[in-house]
Every structure is written in C-alpha cells, then in structure tokens.
Amino acid sequence: MKEIRLKMPVTPEDLAKLEAGTIVYLDGPLYTGREGLYQRILGEGLAPPVDLASVSNVNFHCSPAAAVRPDGSYHVGAVTATASFRFSKWMQRWFDVSGCKMIIGKGGMSEEDYRERFVPNGAVYLTTVGYGTGALLGRGIKRVRDVYWLKELGIAQAMWVFEVENFGPFLVDGDLKGNSLFESENRKVNETLADVYRGLKEPSLRRYGETTSRKDEVI
Amino acid sequence: MIPASVIEDAAYEITRQAAIVIPRDYSDGIRAMLETEKNELSKFVLKAMVENWEAAEADRRAMCADTGLPRFYVKAGNEAKVEGGFIALEKSLRRALARATNDVPLRPNRVHPLTRADNNNNIGIRAPEVEYSFEPDADWVDITTVHKGGLFGTDYRMLFPADGIDGIKKFFLDVLVQFGRRGLACQPAIIGIGLGGSKDTAMTIGKQAACLRVVGDRNPEPKIAALEMELKTLGNAIGMGPMGFVGSSMVVDCHIEVAHTHTGGMPMSVHAFCLSSRRAVARLHGDGTIEYRADPGWFTPYHRRESVE
C-alpha cells in the first residue's frame, strides 16, 4: 500500500499525489468542526470565529476527549472522527466559506459528493482508520493552538485548532479524480452478497422503508 | 458493610481502566482474526487497531475519543450491605464518572436531547444509566462499567414464530450489512442478540449479551450455543471486514440471550460492541476490599432462571 506524509496547509501538488487507498500522515495545523460549528456558521449565518483559511485548509470532523485544566490549559487525550455523511448537505457552502482542500472524518461521503462538490473545489477526503485510532491520533497532537466557541458549543462541538506531527494513519477515500475507496469496496462486496442470503425466506411482516435493496447503503 | 468511599474509588478506577485498556478476551479475538484475514486493506485496519491499543496503554490515554455513553451495571449479593444504602451507591457512581471524565479525560458526550446543552461531565438526566441485578448467597457488590458508542450498529425488529431461524438469520445479516458498510458499526464487533421478552426486554438483553459476555463464552443452552456459532460463521461469510472493506473479519463473537416472550411473537434485537469494546469490573467485598477483573459475570444461572422456585 502507498504511504505519503504531507505538510498542512496542503497544496494542489500534494493532493494530486493521493489516490483512493493511499495511507496518509500529516504535519502542521488543522481544525476540528462538526454539526455544532456548521450549524452556527452555515445554519444560523454567524461569521466564523476566525478567518478559517488563515488557520488551515484542513477540517477534521471530530472532537477530542479533552478537559480544561484549572490553569486554563487543555488536556487532550484522544481524538476520534465522527461519521461524515451527515455533513454532505453542507459541503458546497462549507468549501465557499472555509477554502478547505482536505476534509478528514469517519466513513467518507458518496462518490457523487466527491464528483459534484469535492473535485470542483480541488478537495480530497481522508478517513480515519478502524474506527478509531483515538490514542494514536492523540499522540500526534503536539499543541492546542486555540479553541473557539468552547462556551457556546461545549468541549465536544467546539472548534479546536491543533498543531500535529506524524498525525495518522488516514486512508484516502475521495481523490481528485472523484474515486471513492468505500464505494469501490462496496461494489466488490455486492458481487457475492446474494450468496449469503440464498435460501432464506422473507419475514412475514414487512417494513416501510426507503430502500429494499441490500446492495444500497442506508446513509 | 461496604464503605461508600470504596464504591467511588472502584467506580473511578474501572471507568479509567475501561477507557484505556482493551479487554484481553477481545484483543486476543482480533489478533486471531489477523491470522485468518486475507485482504490487505482489512489486515491494515486490524493492525492499526492493535497498535492503537498499545499506544493507549503505554500513554495512559483513551483508546477512542468517542468514549461512548458510559454506564454501570450493578449486581448486588442478597446479603450485601452498602454504607448509606443504594442511594449512596448511586451518588458515588455519578461522582466517580464526573471526576474520571475530567481526569482521563473522557469526552463529555452527554447532552440534553433537545437543547443539546452539555454539562461537560457525562452526568445528566438518566445519565449514567444504572442497571441492577441480584445474586443469592453473596455479600459482595459487582460494578461493571461499559463505554459503548451509540449511533450505529443496533436495530430491532418484531419477527413472528413462523419466521423461524431463517427470520433470525436474515435480520442478523441485514443489520451487519447495513451498518457494516463503511464500517459504521466499527467492526469486527461482539454481536449481541436479544431474542424474546417484550420489545424493551429484547433490546436490553441484546445489549447486555454484547457488552457483558466475554469473547469465547457460550450460552449454556446447547441449541442457543449452536446458533451463536452458526451466526458468527454466517457473519464472517458476508465478505465484509473492518470499515466495510472486502474481508472475513466481521464478528469476533456472537452472544445470544433469550427471554420468554409473547406466544404470537419473536422480537429480536442486534447490537454491535465495537473495536473499542470498553468494559471493566470491580467486586466490592463486605470487608472493604476491591477485586478487579475483566469478565462481568452478569449472566449467572440465577439470572437466567426459568422455574417458579
């Protein structure tokens, strides 16, 4: 498997080297942001607490297991991503507001999201591994540079700015060609899925639902 | 008499232990899967998880930053006496969890469901959950903590007697496939299945089957034990591994718990206890001593009793 170490903020040349399935480690500054941050900025229309692009062009869908010490400093133990598919609807506007070129999270988004929103913005998606390698990622955090909206959003939803070193591992899910590792793996799994269901009769009481095909994803 | 201070110390210690140290039975199960997994991507993920547990133990940091919804299971001996009674015990559990949340640290995951306000200590309305059971001829109290994520990997369905074993297998597969894609269930997992009871019983015992039985444990009823093994094999034959990649590592073990149910129905729940299967146990003795162990020992013969007595 191909492995690459990149400095943040990331450059278009760096991103061009990444393909679905590449292992990535990161150095430099990045910031966390999930539904709390997106809701305030994109939902309620508040100005970001800082010029986001000046902080980094990498946004991590996660929150840390962290505590504020009595002296006001921060104790960050582990960091683990949260499932990114929930933020798909926000991505186009998020790219406009943040100038992000790399989104990190759990489980990726759809290939359609990559092709329609990520690729036109020159952005890639990296997934955490496992999930989650919280302790390994915690080890990679060298410093908390800032925390924004801690009071308004709480520890789990606040915007944390981390300085990281050898931060990973991550896997490229969405590359600049719009390929998705998850979806290509899905297609392979689907080829033999019918075998495992063969011969099992349908239950007597059906359910309402949005999909009846087991080849579909529910996200 | 078990002193209240001992309860708080023990609850604090198991909360820290659960967050940091992966239970041996589970990590041995994953290491065994590394031997049989053929797919390169799936193997890479399993290796990363093993490295992560080693980093967590070495650095004394939480293995996963989603420290779940910490909760407690209390099994009290019939002769156990607790200083201040069970109200004091519950207060001790809440104090211990609030302290450990700050000290480990755990992520303060618990928020009000509507206002989303976070007390930043994992304490709130009905949080942490405390479930009780009792044991005859004993003067100890066992406290188990479980930190389990809560968003994916669990489902419930009302099946009917005519659906039979086919219905059970199909729903089992449906849950693994729907939540296994992209690894939302954080598999390979200990899959717990609750069969029977009323709907809420099916959910409760299925979760307990996932979280309170160790890898390798079999239900004492031979027919249920055989079904556990059959479902484990079936789950690993889906062709899906960690993160939903092609692979054979989906189910570390399968545990089924049953409860007598309505004559017309067969409610079923499926729960996935994830790659950070966090549980730890302390036994508090009447003389104030504490014994720590990994196996909750929740499903005793008394707990599974069937007769009038």
Largest interface: A-B, 57 and 70 residues
Instruction: State the total count of DSSP E strands of chain A.
Output: 9
Q: Gyration radius of chain A, to the nearest Å?
A: 19 Å
Strand content of chain A: 25-35%
Order of helices and strands of chain B: HHHEHEEEHEHHEEEE
Structural class of chain B: alpha+beta
Number of H/I helices of chain A: 8
User: Widest sheet of chain B: strand order?
Assistant: 2-1-3-8-9
**How far apart lie the N and C ends of chain B?**
29 Å
Globular, elongated, flat, extended or rod-shaped: what is the shape of chain A?
globular
What's the number of domains of chain B? 2
Summarize the structure.
Chain A has 219 residues and is of the alpha/beta class. Chain A is 30% helix and 30% strand. In chain A, a hairpin with a 5-residue loop joins β4 and β5.
Describe this structure in words.
The complex is a heterodimer of chains A (219) and B (309). With 219 residues, chain A is of the alpha/beta class. Chain A has one domain: fumarase (Alpha-Beta Barrel), CATH 3.20.130.10. Helix content of chain A is 30%, strand content 30%. Chain A has a five-stranded mixed barrel. In chain A, strands 4-5 form a two-stranded antiparallel ribbon. Chain B has 309 residues and is α+β, with helices and mostly antiparallel strands. Chain B has two domains: 4-21 and 63-149 and 279-293, 60s Ribosomal Protein L30, Chain: A (2-Layer Sandwich), CATH 3.30.1330; 151-273, no CATH class. Chain B is 37% helix and 21% strand. Chain B has seven helices and nine strands. In chain B, helix 1 runs parallel beside helix 4 (85-103) and helix 2 packs antiparallel against helix 3 (40-59). The model of chain B has no long low-confidence stretch (mean pLDDT 96). At the A-B interface, strand 4, strand 5, helix 6, helix 7 and helix 8 of A face helix 3, helix 4, strand 4 and helix 5 of B.
